[in-house]
Write a structure and sequence with these properties.
With 337 residues, the chain is an alpha/beta fold. Helix content is 34%, strand content 14%. It has one domain: Metal-dependent hydrolases (TIM Barrel), CATH 3.20.20. It is built from 10 helices and 10 strands. The chain has an 8-stranded parallel β-sheet with strand order 1-4-5-6-7-8-9-10. The longest helix is centred in the C-terminal third of the chain and has 19 residues.
Length: 337
């Protein structure tokens, strides 16, 4: 994934709204690939103008082990990120205060040694697993980076693996596309004791056969969100709509959108989700550097602050920090006593 150049992003520069507000960014990646580098130094440069007190790293097949059993290869990512977190532990921003790694949940009960290896690699930060289930038949849609098959969430062995997470007090981060939301609803109802965190609103698509059907897709997405909100074990990350697959096309523009443009185009998704789930089950997320393909870091958080302008201070505290800190069991300077 080639990231946008500094010159393109620098065309839109904004001062942070409410710069003193503590933020927890519960969804970002780190990687060092031949065509792009995004490690702690790049992350800290992006967040520099914002009061980000802690972050949560989400798996992205970074630094997997090159040898040994296949199921144990993702442990290399946790070891890699744990070392980064230790290096920055004394900084104003607790980088990677929480770590969400990959474990093949389709192993069923046999995933337990993998979970234990993650916890051994990061006894103080490992908080959950994301086994991406995102799948769509459209060639234009970028399917799961781990090669998930269709209807994985309906598989009995996968569900057995998800159920193992609660034994270790770990969350399940769910990455899927909006047509798959009924599958997640079924999973959440079948396993009500596992904490599930939906990534990126459930991936409302806007490319391929979904292009030009935003109103129709919003209605379908909204109905699924209404049903999903009835599952008290499900929480939602609010963000990730600046990815090309969402179809807004910001990454292809001559210049990035402003925070006002972002807020105007996406506020319906945010406000409806918060209405149905409540601020205590919702958290804003950057999804950087993936969403950096469309806009700078401060711009995306300013859009969140514009969208949340009508909420009380207590509700904002939940949306911008407290919900994420509670679910991922983080300790930082803004964690409630």
């Amino acid at each position: 994934m080639t990231l946008k150049g500094k010159e393109w992003l620098a065309q839109v520069v904004e001062e942070p709204i409410e710069p003193e507000r503590p933020l927890c960014d519960p969804h970002h990646h780190l990687w060092d690939k031949p065509d792009s580098r995004y490690l702690a130094e790049e992350l800290l440069a992006d967040i520099a103008d914002n009061n980000v007190v802690s972050t949560v790293f989400i798996e992205r097949m970074t630094e997997w082990r090159q040898d040994g059993p296949d199921e144990m290869k993702p442990i290399g990512e946790t070891e890699f990120v744990q070392a980064i977190a230790d290096k920055h532990a004394d900084g104003e921003t607790k980088v990677c205060a929480g770590i969400v790694g990959m474990a093949d949940l389709s192993l069923g009960d046999s995933v337990k040694p993998v979970l234990e290896a993650h916890l051994k690699a990061s006894p103080n930060r490992f908080r959950g697993v994301r086994h991406a289930t995102s799948y769509d038949a459209n060639e234009e849609v970028n399917n799961s980076h781990v090669g998930a098959p269709e209807k994985l969430m309906m598989d009995s062995k996968f569900r057995e693996g998800v159920a193992c997470l609660r034994e270790y007090n770990l969350t399940f981060d769910a990455w899927l596309f909006h047509p798959q939301l009924p599958e997640l609803i079924d999973l959440a109802k079948a396993d009500p004791d596992t904490t599930i965190i939906l990534n990126h609103f459930g991936g409302p698509l806007g490319v391929g056969t979904y292009k030009g059907k935003r109103a129709e897709i919003f209605d379908t997405w909204r109905d699924s969100i209404n049903d999903l909100a009835q599952c008290p074990n499900v929480h939602v990350k609010l963000g990730g709509l600046a990815m090309p697959i969402n179809g807004f096309g910001w990454n292809a523009r001559p210049k990035p959108p402003t925070s006002t443009e972002l807020a105007e185009a996406t506020s319906a998704y945010y406000l409806h989700t918060i209405e149905k789930f409540g601020p205590d089950r919702c958290m804003f997320e950057s999804n950087f550097p993936v969403d950096k393909m469309s806009c700078p870091y401060t711009v995306i958080w300013n859009s969140f602050k514009r969208i949340a302008s009508g909420f009380s201070d207590a509700e904002k505290d939940l949306l911008f920090h407290d919900t994420a800190a509670r679910l991922y069991r983080l300790q930082d300077s803004a964690t409630p006593a």
